[in-house]
Amino acid sequence: MSMTHKLFLLIVGMIFLAGAAWAQETPAQSEATPQPDQKYIISWGSEVIFPQAIRFSITLSHPVSDLASVVLAIRPEGRAPLAFELDLNAAEVREPYSELAYLWDYPLSASPRLFSTIRLDWQAVTRSGEVARVSDELIFTDQRVTWAVREGRPISLMLPADGLESPDVMLDRLARELQTVYDLLAANTGRSEPLNAMVYAGVPPGCGWTDMDEPLAVGPVSGLELACNPAKAEAVFRNDAITIVESPSNSYNAVRAALIETLVRQSYGWQSVPDWFATGLATFYVPAPRPTDLARLIAASRSSTLFSLNQLSRREDDADSDLWLAQSYGLVVYIASQIGVPGLFDLARAAQTQPFEEAFRAALDKPVSALLPDWERWIFTPQAVGAFNFTPYQLPTATPTLTATSTVTRTPTPTLTSTPTATLTPADFQPSATPLPTVRPSRTPTPAPPSVTPRPPGSLNTATPVPVLPVELVNSPAGILGLISIVLIVLAIVVLVFTGFRRR
């Protein structure tokens, strides 16, 4: 064998050694961290089939015929500990290893608390007396959804985080805006109950439903289907005083609208207001105007596709939701334009204790049946444009108009006397210039500092970066061997080239 071939084989060997060292430094991923007494227990797991049951499973390297007993002990947080001996005859796999599962159909009266910890211990004993044990814990939650949680007072939020880039940022922003709404509602209603909201978007809270309208719970991992008791979900949510909020999606605007409507309905506690008023008022409480709704409503009026008042009174799932919402909001905005924002809030309070029709007639001096025709004429007026750009968090503004009246007296020294008269012209949308107790003045932005004039290209010296080897590359054995391999490859190429020239 020539010297060149020997050198080549040496280089190849060094490369393989470097790869092996690199592989040893990369940790293998395992299902669970091995435990001292684990022995012949291969794996274990748990699955919440919300809201019906929890499925616990274990896999053993021994066949069922070698086992004497398998026992599961669980300790739910705040509940009495329980122990269950598994039926070995019901093993899902019997040979050459064994797989067993236990379905804990927890009782309605002792359901686990959401986001609480359930500790569990497995113990298996073979017929020869060999004992194996493992311990684990499970967070009890609806595993169909990945949850982002923000605890606080008076508002706590649990949101579906699937598909969101920054769920924590969304939670913080929602909490700030909801606090503003919460404060205004507390001032208007005198009620300040805390909100502990759990938002569902695209997933039914609690049981799902079959094609035959039968309640169903499905395991998110195993796909196991169980008959579901809706009362179990109610019990789980009631344990922590959780308010369920359903949103059409987990986008920011959709979740905010759903949460604010829940806050409004919870604060007023109406018994018999039409859906258009409840949803429209909730949309009015959102700290953002909806100017584009006006164009949609004008187009719908011209095409005769507006909803009747009867259709607005009860929201139907198959209705045009965008138009239904815009019209409900538009009707509430119109009422505010006629009796003022304080008058609108007075109407909402009056509807807490008397039928809505009576409260409406007392507030506007006309029946509810006259609302839609008057509103449809109003949306074509200039006043409607300002109304759809208003939120109740703005200060009532007044436009002062100075009128100068000059009086000339014929005297040897003419004197011009000017008497200014200030005339306040209220804005179209605020019949009353009295500010609400909870209104906050807006902030005036501070002018930005002057910018620095950039220098022309080439006026500054540009430092040439010095290549630096990564620290990980020179600190690890694999990195050092890799560098040695590269140097040897270069030397081999030089030797081959030099040898070739000599042969010529």
Question: Can you put this structure into words, describing what you see?
Answer:
Residues 3-31 and 397-476 have low confidence and may be disordered. Helices cover 37% and strands 22% of the residues. By secondary structure, the protein is of the alpha+beta class. It contains 13 helices and 16 strands. The strands form five sheets. Strands 4-3-6-7 form a four-stranded antiparallel β-sheet, with no helix packed on it. A four-stranded mixed β-sheet has the order 8-9-10-14, with helices on one face. It has helices spanning 3-25, 167-189, 230-239, 252-268, 275-285, 292-302, 309-313, 321-350, 356-364, 371-378, 382-387, 471-475, 477-503; strands spanning 41-49, 53-60, 67-76, 82-85, 98-104, 117-126, 131-139, 147-150, 155-160, 195-201, 208-209, 215-218, 225-227, 243-247, 398-409, 415-426. Among the domains are: 41-139, Immunoglobulin-like (Sandwich); 142-250, no CATH class; 270-397, Neutral Protease, domain 2. Helix 8 (321-350) crosses helix 9 (356-364). The longest helix has 30 residues, at 321-350.
Keywords:
single chain, 504 residues, alpha+beta, Immunoglobulin-like, Neutral Protease, domain 2, 4-stranded mixed beta sheet, 37% helix, elongated, disordered N terminus
Poorly predicted spans:
3-31, 397-476
Helix content: 25-40%
- Supply the helix-strand structural class: alpha+beta
Strand content: 15-25%
Mean pLDDT: 81
CATH class of the domain at 270-397: Mainly Alpha
| Termini gap | 20 Å
Secondary-structure element order, N to C: HEEEEEEEEEHEEEEHEHHHHHHHHEEHH
- How many H/I helical runs? 13
Q: Within the CATH hierarchy, at the fold level, what is the topology of the domain at 270-397?
A: Neutral Protease, domain 2
Please count the beta strands (DSSP E, at least 2 residues each): 16
Name the shape in a single word.
Answer: elongated
